[in-house]
Specification:
By secondary structure, the chain is of the alpha/beta class. It has one domain: Alpha/Beta hydrolase fold, catalytic domain (Rossmann fold), CATH 3.40.50.1820. It has twelve helices and eight strands. Helix 6 packs across helix 7.
Length: 288
């Protein structure tokens, strides 16, 4: 049989395979949720400011981060949600008022951005890696404040649990800490299975994995929150549909050994408070 005849007979199968292959390639390349090196460079050129764009190697793992400000100042460390990357806090680390007081770092969490992209880790593994990272780069006696949004909030709490004396302040933005408030979607394990996982685009694949593990991780964290002795500042929108406001009451009952516990409930605000209420949060950081 001639090749032309075979092609005609199987053309719909061939088209289907080509479409599926093309879609998988599309999924691999899209929704990375990160700036390219060129986009990062252009952003800081537009802001007319110096920055450091580098990657640290921690126990054979890569942690990519952007750093601004002088090293003789207090350190703010921003930890993004799921999915995301360092540029979730781009505006903060470029803010001239914050730079007057702080050195700032925004990290790509493990599995995101340029930190071993797509290699998902659970809460404890990420916390251990970021703790080791900060021990490696911070200066002696430098005061450190952790700021976490959404998934980044239980992560900074876990970091403080594992190293209770390392962090002066924790700033929890729309934090997902209450295990009972987490309602894992039944479809997540389905799309994480082979071969469907290859159809999940970009950073959403890493996000899906860590969110599958999150509820169990939070039940473990629940028993450890009394180890945290940092000052804790909770900021949450009252109309947050992704991370319910009931998380605030949970945290207020669990952080029993915090030096100071302060809550800022933003009326009618949703989950995206770091960007929609930027000025309010920036001013809170200036008052730490």
């Amino acid at each position: 049989m001639k090749y032309s005849s075979i092609l005609r007979k199987n053309k719909f199968k061939i088209i289907g395979y080509i479409f599926l292959f093309s879609f998988i390639i599309f999924c691999e390349s899209c929704f990375t949720m990160r700036h390219s090196n060129k986009e990062t460079r252009q952003s800081f050129e537009l802001a007319n400011m110096e920055y450091t764009d580098t990657t640290a190697v921690i126990n054979n793992q890569q942690i990519h981060y952007i750093q601004t400000g002088k090293q003789d100042k207090e350190l703010l460390v921003f930890v993004h949600g799921s999915p995301g990357s360092w540029n979730a806090f781009e505006r903060y680390i470029q803010d001239s008022l914050l730079l007057e007081r702080y050195q700032m770092i925004s990290v790509d969490r493990p599995g995101f951005g340029f930190s071993d992209y797509r290699d998902a880790k659970n809460l404890e593994d990420q916390a251990k890696t970021l703790n080791a990272f900060l021990k490696q780069i911070k200066k002696n006696n430098q005061s450190v404040t952790l700021i976490g949004h959404s998934y980044g909030s239980p992560l900074i709490a876990k970091m403080a649990v594992l190293d209770s004396l390392a962090y002066e302040n924790l700033v929890i933005l729309a934090g997902a800490l209450d295990p009972k408030a987490e309602k894992p979607e039944k479809w997540r394990p389905v799309i994480a299975s082979f071969p469907l996982k290859y159809l999940v685009p970009g950073a959403l694949r890493t996000s899906n994995k860590e969110l599958i593990w999150l509820k169990d991780d939070l039940y473990i964290l629940d028993k450890e929150l009394d180890k945290i002795t940092s000052n804790i500042y909770i900021v949450h929108g009252t109309l947050d549909e992704l991370v319910p406001f009931e998380n605030v009451k949970y945290m207020e009952t669990k952080f029993i050994n915090a030096k100071k516990l302060q809550t800022d409930a933003i009326d009618s605000a949703n989950h995206f408070i770091p960007w929609r209420h930027y000025g309010r949060i920036r001013d809170s950081l200036l008052k730490l």
